[in-house]
Automatic annotation (TrEMBL):
One of its GO terms (cellular component) is plasma membrane. It comes from Limosilactobacillus fermentum (strain NBRC 3956 / LMG 18251). Keywords: Cell membrane, Membrane, Transmembrane, Transmembrane helix. The keyword Cell cycle does not apply. The keyword Ion transport does not apply. This is Integral membrane protein.
Length: 371
């Protein structure tokens, strides 16, 4: 399918040029915005009681789709873009990702370990060996576990490109891959619950193994390969998709069993959370289609522009939120938790995206090497 043909006279959402924003851009922006509230909710829940704590716990479940949405969006955009070109140059791709992901990972991880070492997870470094361990496994800050997992998908991208080419436009192969991936996911979730449920401290590294999020990567690939029929299904059954998502959310809340202060009771690695994430991805995809109507099309360019800095903003968000929390957030949260949430969340978003954009401008003004 030609990605650059006009959509005039067609159902919107079937073929749009990438510069106008694809569903991957929408998913990245939604995920990045939502993920910035998760560390804040963990702080606020510990300081709250009663109905306030319940409300904060429900909100935490409401945004528990961030990592899956990121994976789905990145795989969709990457495969779609290279599919339009008809070739996947791995060396060129890695050079691009070095600037977009690997280099920001290096400087933000260094900033957390050297400037805010209190944010380390599991243990604290005490020599160069433990420093390196904390650096590479995502323990430098609460949110970097996801970064360690995401980089695995970048390295494995040729495998996903090969899967995309293997499936092609053949529905039978698509069904085989979809069903096979669902079975792998169910088996992995069962294994995770068995191992982590018995020895959570010994198996925490399973959180950042790429297989845990395979279903979202494959989902992004299948949406590229079968975009027209899948979008038609979503548009036709949008109400059912909404009910499915809300039911999955309710299941997650019930699974908390009244332990509102323990947000880890419901993790990404439960079937309820997996279904909820897939439901949210479906709804965001529907919203992307809606934005392709004339009166909404301006949002496409905005989302594409914001999505350009989403990953870099994500890496730095906990840094800025920690500074705001230590400066005035903790004091406000003890008396007015909802006000603290309403102020800290957008402030963190603005600082994270603003700094990411500032670094982009500085990097763009660097001197050009003379050959």
């Amino acid at each position: 399918m030609n990605e650059h043909r006009s959509t005039t006279g067609r159902r919107p959402g079937i073929s749009l040029p990438h510069q106008e924003g694809d569903v991957g851009d929408f998913l990245k922006v939604f995920a990045c915005t939502a993920v910035m509230v998760q560390p804040l909710l963990a702080q606020l829940v510990r300081l709250s009681t009663g109905p306030t704590q319940l409300g904060l716990a429900i909100l935490d479940n409401l945004v528990k789709y961030t990592a899956p949405a990121f994976i789905f969006g990145i795989l969709y955009t990457t495969i779609r873009t290279h599919s339009g070109a008809g070739v996947f140059n791995y060396r060129h791709y890695l050079r691009q990702q070095w600037a977009a992901l690997f280099w920001p990972t290096i400087y933000w991880t260094s900033a957390y370990l050297l400037l805010l070492p209190k944010l380390q997870q599991e243990q604290h470094y005490h020599n160069w060996t433990s420093f390196a361990w904390q650096f590479v496994n995502g323990n430098a800050a609460p949110h970097l576990w996801y970064n360690t997992m995401m980089l695995q998908f970048i390295i494995l991208m040729p495998c996903f490109w090969a899967l995309h080419r293997l499936v092609g436009k053949r529905p039978q192969r698509g069904w085989v891959v979809a069903i096979g991936t669902a079975l792998i996911t169910l088996a992995w979730l069962a294994l995770y619950q068995h191992l982590v449920g018995q020895n959570p401290g010994h198996w925490y590294l399973l959180d950042r193994v790429w297989v845990s999020f395979l279903i979202y990567a494959v989902g992004g690939i299948l949406l590229v390969n079968f975009r027209r029929p899948l979008l038609n299904v979503l548009l036709r059954f949008w109400l059912q998709a909404t009910v499915f998502t809300l039911a999955s959310l309710a299941w997650m809340i019930v699974q908390m069993g009244g332990e509102w202060a323990n947000l880890s009771v419901v993790s990404y690695y439960k079937l309820s959370a997996t279904l909820y994430a897939l439901g949210v991805i479906s709804l965001v995809t529907i919203w992307w289609v809606v934005n392709q109507f004339g009166q909404w099309r301006g949002n496409l360019r905005i989302m594409h522009g914001v999505a350009t800095y989403a990953y870099r903003a994500y890496l730095g968000n906990v840094f800025w939120q920690t500074l705001l929390w230590d400066w005035w957030g903790r004091q406000l949260a003890t008396t007015h938790p909802w006000l603290a949430l309403a102020l800290l969340w957008p402030a963190t978003w603005l600082l994270a995206f603003g700094f990411a954009y500032l670094l982009h401008l500085i990097w763009g003004c660097r001197p050009v090497k003379q050959k």
